[in-house]
Structure of DUF4136 domain-containing protein:
Amino acid sequence: MKVFSFIIWSFFVLTTFSSCLPESGAADEIGDLDVVYTNHNSSFNFGSGTTYAIPTNVIIVTADPITPGVRPPTLDFIVADQILAAIRNNMNARGFTQVNIQANPDFIILPSATEEGREIIYNYGSQFWTWWYPEFGAGLIFQYPNFDPQAIQGVDTGSLLLQFIDNRNRTPNTPVSVHWISVVNLALSGSQTDNSNRATRGVNQSFIQSPYIQK
């Protein structure tokens, strides 16, 4: 399967997500640029599990090398806390129960953000998460079975990525299968409150667009 590679450019977002922009084509305020993309494995039964885990931080994926077991940079606490709370509220409302990662959850949702302010090209893999969940193992790629299209080729800087993983059927030292993704494109502003509110709306919209995530 194909590695989920990101090539950061604004053109991709403007063309791929143009249907999410205001009808006039002009953004009156920065929030108008927020767009949400979701995709999933149509053959996966999201109601087959009951528990899930989310990490304690939203990591920032950069072009810098990551040492396995070392936590990457993370989003500001207030913004990250709102993102994690939105994920938790949506999952709980759909009948799932959050547990600690050590409790061997059925599902795992990984939230990460691209670095704001410069274009980067990189391959994003499991090494970014071994600080929180060493069982992933270092250097593994993420696979996207039965996705159409197979993988996203570009994501704008400042975007939020959510990945939904079936933790029950993982095989050690093999690529990690992702069964749902959401990409929230956020042109981050200088306001922490504004960024938190817009990120929360983006997460909520991701779940609205994904009614199949249901217990």
User: Anything to note?
Assistant: The radius of gyration is 16 Å.
